[in-house]
Specification:
heterodimer, A: alpha/beta, four-stranded antiparallel sheet, 32% helix, 25% strand, B: mainly alpha
């Protein structure tokens, strides 16, 4: 079996708010292997981003990790000191965000910002850091690195800004890149370029990527394996090809059916009826039951566990039993 | 680009000119007037209360000193108070506000409740009380005004820091493993430079006015040092018959305060295009 770079086990994150306890992540388990792109898919508010932030221990207050284990290269992330954690962030695990325009400090040139990150994790002189900055700008496909390094964030296009963010993330040879909706704020053509760049970095540098997205098209194009999240639960997980060929969970099927396709013009788009429950609600049974067309009695009483239904393919639904495999 | 925008703003350009003129006058007072000894304080009783003339454009005062020379020398203490008070207030207020805003929680509570305590008193009254308690002198007046001024910067900076803290570049910096101190120095402080610059420009005028108010009631610079507030205060006694003595220092206070305010307005308009005046 391939080596596991990151493994998340039974992660639970809660937010104590005035409105009540919000259960954002409810026992999420998955692992990312060295050199693969792992997709974390789900609707807005299903806990994707919080899961990503948890890995860097950056869940904003009042959120807290209630239980679960996160291991990175055998290192127990949750037991590290603040100082050790800062070494990990940006040094071994880097994260990029949805909106590159606001992810860069507007008052400093991009080259300066990249070289700060480099010197943060490596004992280099200013000149060496500058050289490295130019190398890394070149590596992410930015034209004329010396010129680009001198530019300020507002002088760059969205796609270029995201390339700068990726450059910054890679500047100290991180092993894992957490990309939170890296293409959502970009035009479709630029999206494709950024995804190609991520795939290329994976191939050339053996970078592992945890890709957080709501876009199944992005998943199909780039991910090796994928986990589908629904209100903080993993409902289905497996190799991308397998999931797209033989999706099992009613929620995954609903998502897939809701993608507009050529030829469906003029016909209503099938939608999953109902809406995503807020994290405030507490479920005894399956979280998807109120919206599920196949709901049974058992779904109201018991939370379905993830069971294998194929090669590395797992689903959490009472419609399936392990015997069927 | 910024300079061109500035030149188009006539009011701000004129203000800047007036401010520079006063700074120049204060710096080079000894070379600008033939009466520099009188400006520094030595009396010349033979020439008491001469009305404005070619020789003494602003007239002379009750000790026969040239009023123009006194106004030029008075600018030294007034401008010093203005700039130093604001510098001290920014120096105390910015770090406190940035810490309170960035970290939040109990640190925020301690810092902000302390500023609330200072803000609970009317600023002028508090300044008078502190200056009176420390004893009347130029330095004490400055300390008194600065002590009433810093809480405003703490609040301003805190409000900015709270909103910056949530911006994604701060989150991204945390994601890259940047420590809190570095985030405050590189990501928070440089981004609040503009509002602090605007506010402090306007406040120089306010601080000069407060300084003049303190010396008007005798708590500021002591004679024989020239001081606009004290000159207005003394000139009050002779106002009916020798109006020039109180009027010219009063005009100086008025012009400098107004200019700093308009200049601050102008800087804000230039740095923030959204608030630019119509027409």
């Amino acid at each position: 079996m391939e080596t596991r770079l990151l493994s998340v086990e039974g992660l639970k994150v809660q937010f104590r708010t005035y409105a009540g306890l919000v259960r954002a992540v409810n026992g999420v388990t998955f692992d990312v292997r060295a050199g693969e792109v792992f997709g974390l898919v789900g609707e807005t508010g299903c806990g994707k981003t919080i899961t990503g932030l948890s890995i860097l221990r950056l869940v904003p207050p009042p959120g807290e990790m209630v239980s679960g284990k996160i291991a990175f290269n055998g290192l127990d992330i949750l037991s590290l000191s603040q100082a050790e954690m800062r070494e990990i962030r940006g040094g071994r695990i880097a994260m990029i965000f949805q909106n590159p325009a606001t992810s860069l400090n507007p008052v400093f040139s991009v080259g300066q910002q990249i070289s700060w990150v480099i010197r943060l994790h490596r004992p280099l002189t200013a000149n060496q850091a500058e050289e490295r900055t130019l190398e890394i700008l070149e590596a992410v496909g930015l034209p004329d690195p010396p010129q680009t390094a001198r530019r300020y964030p507002h002088e760059l296009s969205g796609g270029m800004q995201q390339r700068v963010m990726i450059a910054m993330a890679l500047s100290s040879d991180a092993e894992l890149l957490i990309a939170d909706e890296p293409t959502t704020a970009l035009d479709v053509t630029i999206q494709a370029q950024i995804l190609t760049l991520l795939a290329q970095l994976r191939d050339e540098r053996g970078l592992s990527i945890l890709l957080i997205t709501h876009n199944l098209g992005v998943v199909a194009e780039t991910c090796d394996r994928v986990a589908v999240l629904y209100v903080g639960h993993v409902v289905e997980q497996g190799p991308t090809r397998e999931i797209f060929k033989a999706m099992k969970h009613p929620y995954t099927r609903g998502l897939m059916a809701a993608i507009p396709r050529p030829g469906s013009h003029g016909q209503p788009l099938p939608a999953i009826h109902g809406s995503v429950p807020s994290g405030l609600e507490r479920f005894l049974g399956c979280p998807f039951r109120p919206r599920c067309s196949w709901a049974m009695d058992v779904c109201e009483q018991k939370l379905p566990a993830l069971i294998p239904v194929g090669r590395e393919h797992y689903v959490a639904c009472h419609l399936y039993t392990e015997e069927e495999v | 680009m910024m300079l061109r925008a500035f030149r188009r703003d006539h009011l701000a350009s004129i203000s800047l000119l007036i401010v520079l003129l006063f700074i120049f006058g204060a710096l080079f007072a000894p070379y600008l007037t033939p009466y520099s000894e009188e400006g520094a304080g030595s009396p010349n009783t033979a020439n008491r209360f001469l009305p404005p003339s070619g020789e003494h454009p602003f007239g002379t005062d009750y000790l026969g000193r040239d009023v123009l020379a006194r106004v030029l020398y008075g600018g030294r203490s007034s401008l010093t108070i203005g700039f130093l008070v604001v510098a001290i207030a920014v120096g105390i207020g910015t770090p406190l506000g940035a810490l309170a805003g960035y970290f939040g929680g109990w640190l925020d509570e301690i810092i902000m409740r302390t500023t609330d305590m200072f803000l609970a008193f009317p600023p002028l009254l508090l300044a008078i009380a502190i200056a009176a308690a420390l004893g009347p002198s130029f330095v004490n007046a400055m300390i008194a005004i600065a002590l009433t001024w810093w809480p405003w910067y703490t609040r301003l900076v805190r409000a900015q820091a709270v909103s910056l803290r949530e911006r994604s570049f701060v989150e991204a910096a945390r994601g890259m493993g940047v420590g809190s101190v570095t985030i405050i120095l590189r990501h928070i402080v440089p981004n609040i430079f503009t509002p602090v610059l605007v506010q402090s420009t306007m406040d120089v005028g306010g601080a000069i006015l407060t300084g003049a108010a303190l010396s008007f009631i005798g708590l500021g610079a002591q004679p024989p040092t020239a001081d606009w507030g004290r000159m207005v205060s003394t000139g009050r006694n002779y106002f009916l018959h020798q109006p020039w003595y109180g009027t010219f220092p009063g005009l100086a206070i008025f012009l400098v305060t107004l200019s700093f305010n308009l200049l601050g307005d102008g800087i804000r308009d230039i740095l923030d295009p959204r608030s630019r005046r119509a027409g």
